[in-house]
TrEMBL record:
Listed GO CC annotations: chromosome, telomeric region; nucleus; Smc5-Smc6 complex
Gene behind the chain: smc5
Ranges for domain RecF/RecN/SMC N-terminal: 42-1022
Species the sequence originates in: Cyprinus carpio (Common carp)
Principal localisation: nucleus
Name the record gives this protein: Structural maintenance of chromosomes protein 5
Keyword Secreted appears in the UniProt entry: no
Biased composition (Polar residues): 13-32
Any single biological process term in GO: double-strand break repair via homologous recombination
Coiled coil: 264-291, 389-444, 634-723, 850-891
Length: 1062
């Protein structure tokens, strides 16, 4: 027949009170009437060229709005219009990602207009969508604006279309159960909590994150600081010894600086004395010359008178000259003897100095011996460590013997293990040949059912977690005795059960499903064996009575399976009562069905199912061809496999026992090795101690030998002084003889002079004076030479002292800083030398010290001070953050706990009304980790189970929908948002739960203190209870829809009544 011409599709939305709704709807030009609407409720939704709609207006009520219509009519389009019209993102809807896709096909633009109730004047939001550039134009109360301004206006009314607790589109229903506890808490805070609750939570998370960072920083700095302190504490003694040595070295340096100044001062004082003596001698020489001047004049007068007797005078003068020469020789001899006396006295002085030095060295050596003995004593008044070393050596030998004994035992165990491994390998090779057949089955399982295979691997790794027997998928544990009969088993047992795990205990199955389905999100099947075994249940009739019809066996006898698996198959699929026949059975099948009246039978190639009608008592049979077997064709001798498994377990136990014994021996060896290392370290320490002690003893012995040597080299100063005095006396005797000869020559010279006429008495006086003057001149010359030598020495000592003290050239005064330091040191050379030797001796006792250790110590001290300051700053900051956290937590936690308690109270009441159980609690593994806080939903739909957390995998789809819906209803009376949207959440619910949930929704959403509620559904059950406060919006769509002005509600009801079946 000819098809009618296609008409352009026109879509409208009709409600059961369309006229009254339009009349009661507040106008956009007025402030509006409350009429039960709360601030931000939707008064009107207008759609033009939007998804399925050409043009439509929706006027929802203030309470529960039931939007009902067949699939595809446009119910969810209203949800999309609400979301996009209120500046929501397309990602919220889970449909198209571009807003242009929401414009009706064939149109270049579309629009959504939503009117929201507001006490100060209704708010009209208009969004016009352009398909071409995928852009939108926004208007607020018919005035163009930006999307940001719309978002701000929507936010002020507490509308959150991105919050699943307020706006749950059809495509996002499943995601609610997938929300983590943390995400659910945040969504709940935003939806029903005070505005500041979520802000406080965010502050707490920020503070806690910074607190955690500060705690880590403080911990790291404290650890580093403690390690630095420990390192410095270890070096502190060396640093103290270093500074002690440095003080000695500084004192030595200062003494060495003062010593040249003392030498210079000594030489200067001696120079001053020589100068004074020289000046006195100069004055005396001058006086002598002045006294001699008249005599010289008289001599010149006499000489003029003595011209005549010149020859005689010459002879006398020659005699006088000769006598004078001899006097000079004797004077020189006398000077030589004086010098000899000085040398003798110098030798005595050297001996005295040598003896003084020896005494000083003895004192210094005694002091060094005393310091070394003190250091030896500081090492501990320990007894000789040799017995301890011998004891350590004895214990080391004992440990070596034990290690050798253990190594022998280990060798024996290795041989035993090799033999056990040989047996184990033989058994494993046999098992591998059997496993190869099983591997074929496992490969098929992995190829067809990867999730089941993954769960199988997990089960094999975690069998010890289960108390009862747990069996792998049936296709792996069923062993068909004859591969030709595998097709019967596979045809009889559904594939879902062939890949199912079999459990003996209910709690084991729940534990398994929690892990593989909830945690790993694997799709697997599980079954539980009957409590009472059915594996040996007898058939309804003996096989002998069936053999005349060609039957040769029951299904149960064709395969082997574990006890619980066989029990389940007998209980569930009656394998103990399903016979298997041959071609003979097929040839007489009608008689078999008629006479035996068995519900299921197998022939050689077909399966027959027999049913009896409940109305006519007629017998109806159906048959189907048997497909070739896919999974059970591989057969394994079960008895051999069990025996092999027992042998393998025994061999593994033996290997395990050997391994345990070897591990115990290795542990003993490790303990012995540790003890061996400890003893060797102790031995090394004792040896070092003994070596150091021996070194100190050797050094003390050497010093004592040196001391004895010095004491033996004592100088007998008394004898030397007596010897010196004797030598000086001998020299003096010689000087006396020389002086006598000298005086004799002087008398001879005077006798010559007396022979001269006119100069008897005067000449004697002149001669004496001349001799005295000559002697004074000689003494003066000698003193002048001594002065010059001392002056040179002073200059040299001054220059050396200036160089040592780093003085500028020309500077002669001691610097002030050195003058103060010099005042605390001795003032004599002997005392300075004694102190120098003492300080050098003390400094030599400090060995093994370096500047690097001190520099490292000082650098680390500075680091410690800086770290202490940084640690104090970080600790103060941490204290501040903790105070902020305590204040924020006080503001947030108590209110949140009260809110969750209110939600839990309503949620539990709703579940109790459904004869189920549910609870909501605030969950946190650590109260201080605020980013880990979450809301946990736990439900129980059967009395035999425990409360389980709501997850995407543990509960069925209908159970998740019920839980989601009841949680949202628990928020309804607490909600500060103006409306809530839930789209087709009742899909998947069983009729009983759907009716219960609907009653709860009506009762809660139509209450006094509730906001607007949109409930979208494609179907409703019969005889539901409705409320007067409900608004039911029926959505129709199609080519034969009437325009709104032609729609008659009364005519529709009248026709519906006529069509009712009596």
């Amino acid at each position: 027949m000819d098809l009618p011409q296609k008409r352009k599709r026109i879509s409208y939305e009709l409600t059961n009170s369309q006229t009254s709704s339009r009349e009661a709807a507040p106008s956009s030009s007025t402030n509006g009437q409350a009429g039960g609407f709360v601030e931000g409720s939707i008064l009107r939704i207008t759609m033009r060229n939007f998804l399925t709609y050409d043009h439509s207006e929706v006027f929802p009520g203030p309470k529960l709005n039931m939007i009902v219509g067949a699939n595809g009519t446009g119910k969810s389009s209203i949800v999309c219009a609400i979301c996009l019209g209120l500046a929501g993102k397309t990602a919220v809807l889970g449909r198209g990602d571009k807003v242009g896709l929401y414009v009706k096909r064939g149109c270049s633009k579309g629009s959504v207009e939503i009117e929201l109730y507001r006490a100060s004047g209704n708010l009209i939001i208009t969004r016009e969508i352009q398909v071409e550039n995928n852009q939108s134009t926004w208007m607020l109360n018919k005035k163009h604006t930006s999307q940001k301004a719309v978002e701000e206006a929507v936010k002020e009314l507490h509308i959150q279309v991105g919050n699943l607790c307020q706006f749950l589109p059809q495509e996002k229903v499943g995601e609610f159960a997938k929300m983590s506890k943390i995400e659910l808490l945040e969504a709940t805070e935003k939806s029903v909590g005070p505005p500041e609750m979520y802000e406080f939570h965010c502050e707490l998370k920020t503070f806690r994150s910074k607190e955690r960072d500060l705690e880590n920083v403080c911990k790291e700095k404290a650890n580093f600081l403690e390690k630095a302190r420990q390192r410095n504490e270890r070096n502190k003694l060396d640093v103290e010894r270093y500074y002690m040595k440095k003080r000695h070295l500084d004192r030595i340096q200062m003494l060495e600086k003062k010593k040249p100044w003392v030498e210079y001062e000594t030489a200067r004082k001696e120079l001053e004395g020589v100068k004074k003596e020289r000046e006195e001698m100069k004055k005396k020489l001058k006086s002598l010359k002045e006294a001699q001047e008249p005599l010289l004049r008289k001599i010149r007068s006499v000489e003029s008178q003595l011209q005549p007797i010149e020859q005689q005078m010459k002879e006398l003068t020659a005699g006088i000259r000769d006598a004078t020469q001899k006097c000079k020789q004797k004077h020189d001899q006398l000077e030589y003897r004086n010098k000899e006396v000085d040398d003798i006295r110098q030798d005595l002085s050297l001996k005295q100095t040598e003896e003084a030095d020896r005494q000083k060295r003895i004192g210094h050596t005694q002091l060094m011996i005393k310091d070394l003995q003190k250091e030896l004593q500081n090492m501990g008044s320990m007894e000789d460590v040799t017995p301890q070393i011998e004891a350590v050596n004895a214990e080391l030998r004992k440990i070596q013997e034990e290690k050798a004994k253990l190594e022998g035992e280990m060798s024996d165990l290795r041989r035993d293990k090799d033999e056990a491994f040989g047996e184990l390998n033989r058994l494993q090779n046999r098992q591998r040949s059997l496993d190869d057949m099983m591997k074929v089955k496992e490969d098929k399982l992995r190829t067809r059912f990867r999730d089941t295979y993954t769960a199988l691997k997990w089960l094999r790794d975690n069998r010890d977690r289960f108390e009862g027997n747990v069996y792998e998928p049936m296709m792996l544990v069923i062993n068909v005795r004859d591969s030709r009969h595998a097709k019967y088993i596979e045809s009889h047992i559904p594939l879902n059960d062939l890949r199912a795990f079999v459990f003996q205990r209910q709690e084991d199955m729940e534990k398994f499903m929690t892990e593989v389905r909830d945690t790993q999100r694997l799709r697997v099947n599980t079954v539980i064996a009957p409590e009472e075994s059915c594996s040996r249940r007898p058939p309804s009739r003996p096989l002998e009575t069936l053999k005349p019809y060609g039957f040769f066996s029951y299904l149960r006898e064709l395969f082997d399976a574990p006890e619980e698996v066989m029990s389940y198959l007998c209980y569930q699929y009656k394998v103990n009562d399903v016979p298997v026949g041959t071609e003979k059975t097929k040839s007489m099948i009608e008689m078999v069905i008629r006479e035996l009246q068995m519900r299921m039978i197998y022939t050689a190639e077909e399966k027959y199912t027999v049913k009896k009608s409940n109305y006519s008592s007629n017998v109806v049979s159906s048959n189907s061809a048997l497909r070739p077997s896919q999974f059970l064709t591989m057969t394994v001798d079960a008895d051999e496999r069990r025996q092999l498994e027992e042998q393998l377990r025994a061999a593994q136990r033996q290997v395990q026992s050997i391994d345990q014994r070897m591990a115990a021996i290795r542990e003993q060896q490790a303990k012995l090795d540790r003890r061996d290392n400890e003893l060797r370290a102790n031995k090394k320490k004792l040896s070092e101690l003994k070596g150091k002690k021996r070194q100190l003893e050797q050094k003390i012995s050497t010093k004592q030998d040196s001391l004895r040597q010095m004491e033996q080299n004592e100088i007998n100063l008394q004898a030397i002084e007596e010897e010196t005095n004797a030598k000086i006396a001998a020299v003096n005797n010689k000087k006396v003889a020389i002086m006598e000869e000298y005086l004799g020559h002087m008398q001879s010279m005077l006798s010559y002079l007396l022979l001269i006429k006119y100069s008897s008495s005067t000449d004697d006086s002149r001669t004496v004076r001349t001799c005295v003057c000559v002697f004074a001149q000689v003494v003066y010359t000698k003193l002048d030479q001594v002065k010059n030598n001392l002056l040179t020495t002073c200059k040299t000592l001054m220059r050396r002292a200036s160089e040592i003290c780093n003085m500028t050239p020309g500077e002669t005064a001691v610097p002030e800083e050195l003058h103060q330091a010099f005042s605390q040191l001795p003032d004599t050379l002997d005392e300075i030398d004694a102190m120098l030797n003492e300080e050098k001796t003390r400094a030599e006792c400090f060995t093994g010290l370096s500047d690097a250790v001190v520099e490292e110590y000082n650098r680390r001290e500075r680091e410690i001070q800086n770290m202490e300051k940084e640690l104090d700053d970080k600790t103060n900051a941490l204290t501040t953050y903790r105070q902020n956290i305590a204040e924020a937590k006080e503001r947030w936690h108590l209110n949140l706990k009260q809110l969750v308690d209110q939600i839990n109270e309503r949620f539990s009441d709703f579940f109790r009304s459904m004869q189920c159980a549910g609870e909501v609690d605030l969950h946190s593994e650590n109260e201080e980790e605020y980013d880990k806080y979450g809301i946990r939903i736990r439900v129980k739909f059967r009395s035999s189970t425990q409360l389980h957390e709501l997850t995407p995998h543990h509960q069925s789809g209908g159970e998740r929908s019920v839980s989601t819906m009841l949680y949202l209803m628990s928020l309804q009376e607490l909600n500060r948002c103006p409306f809530r949207v839930v789209d087709e959440i009742n899909q998947g619910m069983d009729p009983v739960n759907e009716r219960r949930v609907f009653d709860i929704v009506v009762r809660t959403a139509c209450g006094v203190n509730t906001s607007q509620y949109f409930f979208i559904t494609p179907k409703l059950l019969h005889y539901l209870k409705y409320a007067e406060q409900m608004t039911i919006l029926c959505v129709h769509n199609g080519p034969y829809m009437l325009p709104p002005h032609k729609w008659s509600e009364k005519a529709f009801i009248r026709r519906a009544k006529r069509r009712q079946i009596p």
